Amino acid sequence: MSEDAAWARLQTYAAEVENTRDQHGALLLPNMFSLSIANLRARCRETHPAELNTQAAAQALEHCRSDKAATLRRSILAFNKLIGERNRHPAIQDLVPLAPIGDLPRLRDRPLDWSQFSAKFIASRDRALKVAVRNDARKKKDRFGDKLGADPLNGRDRTRRTRPIRNPEAARARHLNALSWLVRHAFEDRRAAYRIDSIEALVTSEAVEQATMRYIARAEASPVLLNPAQTSSGASILSALETLARRNDLDQDVIWALEDARFDHVDSYQTREMSAEREAFIKLVERNPAIAKAIVSGPRLLKAEAEAAFATWDDLGAHSKSEALHLSMGATMMALQLARSVRSRNLNGMIIGGPDPELIRPLRESRPWLDIHRSRVKNRRPIEGEIPERQWQVIVAWLDEGLPRWCAIKEIDAEANIFLFPGPNGVLSRQSFNRIWNRCVNRIGVPGLRPHMMRHVAATLWLAVNPGDYATVAAFLGDSIATVEKFYARGEGAAAAKLFAGVMETIDPTLAIFLRRT
């Protein structure tokens, strides 16, 4: 029987027998066992299954992509179990090797030997792991509902875990693997690491930077390891280290180094998200480049409709009042997106009261300002800067006229409210936020415009008039210059700027205000 026919017969048998039991009720083959055989067949198709040995499996592993290596190893473990129980499968005994496949070499390096560390370090490590995976007890509200002297951000503090970990052992193993990765890549000579006696001395900003650079260089030099910018493995490891560092209150420099490494040097979900959103936005632009005028004039038009309704407020019915408030709220959402591009999560939960407001009203001769701390931004870069006067006029109309009426209708304590868009239970629900946004963009004739797309609207408008000014766009978006240049210097980003440049002569006067941004 040829190699391919032997693998096909073995795979067919596995598919028929998996998840079935023998006459004694014992499971013959586990569920999905045929997938393991299919994976082995794909990697070792040149070798007859009865002749598969340690050497052949090692060669297959050597030519396997790094992100598929773990799957191959699991398939070999499953095959070894079949070899050990070959007497239970007489129909394919001639297709199963006589001896199991031995231990296979590692692609990267030898495993870390934790027994080489001192007992003091192991105790420090175990304490850090315990803190990293434990659940925080939910804080009980006092009899005043935590309104007297309570931190208004306490309920949104992401350092406190309110959802239990389903598998603490798996979480512990994930953090332990991340620490192993740090030691294996940060220290050329592991004996230097073995002399460390605390977790604080191991997880440092210098160690993180060295480990990241060596990890990238090693992958780029290997013919089988994937580029860290094309796989999420590095990001997952750095994310686990960041969680461990935050939960154990390690130095802030360490946390920043982990964030910079995760977002700037390895694969980041932001770049993938940005690419998908940009593609959707470009399709919107290509259908009608004049939508730029509708977008930049949208806040003013929505505000005018809302104010017309406010002028006759007492004569309106419940539906008309709700519609007016939604228009004023939507005008504010769009104005903020044009003033300082923020992600929808930050827009939805923006804070205007308490000790640390994010939207700051001007006092005396000061200017309206947006100041969102880096801890509340997804890519950990602060969003701050002046809000242009034309956009501020739209926002202040909501603050002075719309918000008090909204609180009265929703029975929200206006004095205690700290949110720009409050809901009955705190911040406005995401479902309501999306519904109001969609209603307003449909009103101005741009259906399908999502809040996150507004980031690309702002960037494209600016680059259409100021080609190559990626530094300003990077500051506006809160992204790195390299990221902005990557997505707007060529391809669809450049095409969008060209389309917008063609309609600059007839664009709304609001754009002139926008383009004089300081």
TrEMBL record:
Give the span(s) annotated as Disordered.
141-163
> Domain of life, per the record?
Bacteria
Start and end of every Tyr recombinase domain? 300-501
InterPro entries, from UniProt?
Answer: DNA_brk_join_enz, Integrase-like_cat_sf, Integrase_catalytic
SUPFAM superfamilies tied to this protein = DNA breaking-rejoining enzymes (SSF56349)
Q: Where is the signal peptide?
A: none
Q: What UniProt keywords are attached to this protein's entry?
A: DNA recombination
Ranges of Basic and acidic residues composition bias in the record: 143-157
Annotated coiled-coil positions are none
Protein name (database record): Tyr recombinase domain-containing protein
> Which species is listed as the source?
Sulfitobacter profundi
